[in-house]
Amino acid sequence: MGNKQTIFTPEQLDAYQDCTFFTRKEILRLFYRYRDLAPQLVPLSYIDKPDVKLPYELIGSMPELKDNPFRQRIAEVFSEDGDGNMTLDDFLDMFSVLSEMAPRDLKAYYAFKIYDFNNDDYICKSDLEKTVNKLTRNELTPEEVCLVCDKVIDEADQDNDGKLSVEDFQHMIIRAPDFLR
Amino acid sequence: VKTTKSCKRHKSVRQHASITQCTLQPGTEILSNSDDDHRDLKADSNDPEQIFQNIQFQKEIVANIRCRPWPMRQKLRTLRQAKEIVLKYEGRLTRTRGYQAAGAELWKKFVRLAYNFMVIFIPWEMRIKKIESHFGSGVASYFIFLRWLFGINIVLTVMTGAFVVLPELLAGAPFGSTISKTIPKEQFASAQDLDTIWSLGGYLQYSVLFYGNGRLPLAYFLVGMAVFAYSFIILLKKMAKNSRMSLASASDENYTFCWRVFCAWDYLIGNPEAAESKAAAIVNSIREAILEEQEKKKSKNLAVTICLRIIANILVLLSLAGSIYIIYFVVDRSQKLERTKKELTLWEKNEVSVVVSLITMIAPSAFELVAALEMYHPRTTLRFQLARVLVLYLGNLYSLIIALLDKVDSMNITEAEANSSASNWIDSTTFLVPRTVPKEDNLSTTVPAIRIRRNSTMTLEKSHTQNYTIPVMLVNKTTPYLHNMQSQTAQCWETYVGQEMLKLSIIDMIFTVASILLIDFFRGLFVRYLSDCWCWDLESKFPEYGEFKIAENVLHLVYNQGMIWMGAFFSPCLPAFNVLKLIGLMYLRSWAVLTCNVPHQQVFRASRSNNFYLAMLLFMLFLCMLPTIFAIARYKPSLSCGPFSSGQEKIYDIVSETIKADFPVWFNTVINYISSPVVVLPALLLLFMLIYYLQSIARSLKFTNSQLRMQIQTERTEDKKKVVQMAVGKRIPWECHALTAGGSSDSSINNPSLLFPARIQTFEGNDKRPEQDSDLTSQESSARSSTPRKNGSVLNFESPVPKGSRIQTISQSIPQPDVARPANISPATPTHLTPTPSVPSMQKRRIDQAANRYSNIVHGSASELCKTKPYPPVTFKKHVEDVHSEPLFRKGIRQVNPDVLGAGAPAFVGRKVPTTRYFIVNEHESRKKLLRSTSRLPKHFRMEESGDIVELYPRNVRRYVVRTPHRTYSPHFSEEEEEEEELRRDLINRSYRPRSLSDLRPAPRFYIGERVDSQILTGKDLAKMHYKSWDNGFELELDRPSQAHKKSHVKRVDLDQHYPEHHVKPKSKHKLEQSLTESDSISISSSDQQTSGNDQYIQVIHSKEKYLKSEAKLTRNKSKTHTDLTMAESNELVCSNV
């Protein structure tokens, strides 16, 4: 701790604390996590806001993500370029949303984006199939997957348009007893 | 100061720009109008109330920014701007406000610092996080629970330590000075033996750690009660908090599959093995769900399963009964042993606790085996398992405590006997300490009951006491002490119970450690290193690695805590010991989990908001409190030891005694009155009534809740039905209408069909929307959620009304056929909008007409909405932005005009259909040109000119175009991330929902056509953006964040339009709106939904925004002033809000 750190200006740290759910210490820790992914790429000072992006391959290999079936989607959703390459800002953003302090509907919103594979802002059947396959590591038969997808849409689709909108999704997910990430 | 300067600069630049525009464009009102606008701004920015509101608004942004789903860059930027604004304007406010603000700032800093500091002291945070990342939230929940218990125990320790142990240590008599603190001589020799220490005898027994040595009866009693009270309060508080968090559990809606799919993954898992087993578990659960779904109707072979279940339950009951019997037997045996034998072996001393611990260890596994018989659903199995284990633990504790109390009974008897025998056999009672006098009185009451048993044990005891009391009596006066102490040590039952509980706790700890080492660690080692040279695969077949059974472990913690509560009164050291135990357990368990455990197959997901464990703990607390209370109420405190040895009949008598002795008389009388039946009974009655009342309220609330839910459900389904009906039913009329393009009355009938479905959609959206947003801005949502629904039905039929207004506007527009020019001028031309009908300028009227045309639909409904829900911003915004794409419709009107002139206005919609068709393409085409064009103004002209050319574009081309934009559309959105999220979501929804509707519906052509148009636009603009964003991406971003303000600004502009002559009026209105925009994102979004009866508008808006931006870019390249113009616009808007 102390004021010795030269990575961020105090204003930067303050702003980050305002924008995330983290404490100062956690932000610094996250910065080091970020830097450890590619020490040669990431400078030790962010005071002059260097434009550094870490490729998805590095982000996806983090222990937090590497076993997650949706890691690619997560990285894509949180990265500003949509390809999973992350700046430090994106990185902090991701961890902030995934942290336990983040409110449920924020999480729900991002969860929706994660499950919306084709970015059309609806979870349609193809998205669902992808989700289920990723989740089960392709262990279900196509018929089973199809059945599950139909069931899901049947359950959660409030407006009968055959796909889940954000509202449908949030309506459903907020009621989940153990929706907590 | 700097910022104000820049603001001024922007203003001037803007003025300049508008002047230049004026020179280029016909119509001189622009100038004056912009000046008016300017004046407005100034007036606004000087109004302290406005400033204050804006500052509040900005502060709210700052406070909530972390909850917005924006990318970090946008958040940072918005934050910076908000802070700047706050900083800039705060100085203008009155001094006190400035100080207030400074104070608030300081306080905020301090809070943050304190928070940063406090976090350091949360113990084991990193450790738990690490476990969480490896094994998921379930396992971590165990450790979090452990930590929470640790906290509770620390408080309990502090309580007992501060009020009982410390005073005793500091102010009490030194060790050895009093009877109760002196080790008897016979025992002194063995006081330091390991054996004695082990059984908590010797020094420990006579130390402060146990009941026997307190000197502060009141403190002791109150602390003992406070321990329970605190535990209850903290538990209930936590439970209430949790239940508030998990409001979801109340809903009976069934989302089995959804939850299994979307909520299945534990995002905290970071360990391949855990991931593996989690995936397997998910597959299982999904398969199960499928099976359940398929076999819902089928009846299984019930007979066998029922038989098995009955057998299993019998087995469980037997084992429960067996364990209870064993414990009772063991306690009884130890009692007998103690009586008969003088020297007890180590085993004999500890067998009670060892047996109890063994049972608690073995029985759960046995239950698990039994549960396999039952073939329940895994979740049910787990529940059963937990319930059984809990019953077992409780049974153990209870049988133990009952056996102990039984022993206490017999101890009392022997004591009584000893005393009575002493008094019988030895005539003089002089050697007895004065203290024993009340005891004698007391004995008289108990003796009759005792007499029966006396015969059995009498002889032995008698001879025993006789042996040394008589000689003692004869010799000197010191020996009575000895005798007294003898009886004391044997008969201080409180100490005895405390000792037993502590012993149990210690042995439980030892067993836990042993089981962790044996079952987890050595098994892990064995499996890891011997699996290579074993004949079967150790890792996946028989022994495997130990699993971390969350539920059982949590139950064990609950049991442990129950033990503490049970014994805490008799042994003040128990909480302190438990603290140590929990620390050790924390380290050991976390180590074991990380080194040699694999996650449980059936992952029992316990989110932090789960009250299950807490409910068990509460149950345990209550049940553990009972024996203590019972013992306190039933038994007389030991006379020869402990704080209550001064002759209280019951332990709680100390309270009344103190009140009598140490409080003033009046207090005593008051207490007397209060404790008399006259007060107590009514008070009790009152309490009962209160409980009944609250419960009935709760019941009725529940009822209304379910009623409301049902209502929502039915309305929703009705809405759905209506949509479908509309889609089916309106098809034919619509076609007819399209054919009879001039039919005036038809249109007004048919028109609802146009507006209606979309609006239903929006209201549906509204229903849901507040729920989602409720947390983001929890203030407003609740009230809002109900009102829009009510309006919904009304508004749906409102659509004919707007038609009327539309008629007017059309008739206005008719005389001007050549209204082509400057509609698209720039975003910075609110001036166009002032509809002063008196001024016969062509341009203005044209715009007026166009704007009104848009407004009738939106505004018609919006004005309705405004009454109930004051969210005009977006609706107004729509008009204005619509003005932008207005040429499209204008032309449509123009085209139709010849017909309309004859037919009259009402037929508008009908005609709109065919006409707009042309213009879509037309617009599109013009935009294409626009792209090519370098300067801005020429564009507009060209657009108008080109209009006629493309009019006759074939329809299929359009249709084709419809599809292509989809692709350009989505990247476009991803590109647009800086935009306000809510708005965007709505836009997306809006833009997509109609598509599905249009599938259902006859899909009015103009509708599709328009969409095409707008989407193409966006695509185009997107392309433009791509092209330009490389060099001026930064500036681009600069003007975006102010979109919220832009909206309000635009809205204001619209007000100008409505109150063209009174410039004061818009201001006042503006204030109102300003306060509204404080919740800006949501209010905007919701009103968006409401008013977006016509989807096309939003689309247009959308494209317009893009268009604006791209335009800004284009112009920026061209000349600096132009950039400043747009920049100035956005910035100024911010100022204007103030």
TrEMBL record, chain A:
Q: Which InterPro entries match?
A: CIBP (IPR051433), EF-hand-dom_pair (IPR011992), EF_Hand_1_Ca_BS (IPR018247), EF_hand_dom (IPR002048)
What organism is the protein native to?
A: Pelodiscus sinensis
Biological process terms in GO annotation? calcium ion homeostasis
**Alphabetically ordered keywords of this record:** Calcium, Magnesium, Metal-binding, Repeat
The keyword Magnesium appears for this protein: yes
Q: Where is the EF-hand domain?
A: 103-138, 144-179
Which Pfam family, an example, fits this chain?
EF-hand_7
Task: Report the protein name in the record.
Answer: Calcium and integrin binding family member 3
Q: Name one GO molecular function term.
A: calcium ion binding
UniProtKB/TrEMBL annotation, chain B:
This protein's GO cellular component annotations are: plasma membrane
Membrane-spanning parts: 139-166, 218-236, 306-331, 351-373, 385-405, 504-522, 612-633, 670-694
What membrane topology does the annotation report for this chain? Multi-pass membrane protein
| Keywords assigned | Membrane, Transmembrane, Transmembrane helix
Where does the UniProt annotation locate this protein? Answer: Membrane
Assigned protein family: Belongs to the TMC family.
Protein's recorded name: Transmembrane channel-like protein
Q: Which organism is it from?
A: Pelodiscus sinensis
Organism ancestry: Eukaryota, Metazoa, Chordata, Craniata, Vertebrata
